[in-house]
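Hi R.,

Here's the chain you asked about this morning:
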Amino acid sequence: MTNSQRLSSVRSALRQWISERQPDATDLHEAASEAMLIRDGFFCGRRFRFENYQAVWFLEEDEVKIRDTDGNVLAMLRSNEIDQLAQVWETTPVTQPSSDEEVRTLSIAAHLENKASESERRRAA
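And the predicted structure, written out as tokens:
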């Protein structure tokens, strides 16, 4: 599994973890911020900030630590827990938004695809 594939699983696991605690959470699909972590010039993980949570994925340990906004550790997800949560998130049917509603994701690739198709629609009109 590549780092980008694992990152996708981590994002899905975080979404599922938040949805289990806050079913009506507004930050399920979009982190307020996401940053790469670099140590000694090498990629070592990612930091995610949500409205009510912060999480850090440590690449080498393949663990995610989730904290509240005060910095208290709420959960530590190990590799197998990340896989289980990601599996649930990815197999849960997603309610399709209305045609006027924008779908928000943590994926920059999806964002770029949406922008490209939006540009194509504008050129066609």
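The chain has three helices and five strands.

Let me know if you need anything else.
M.
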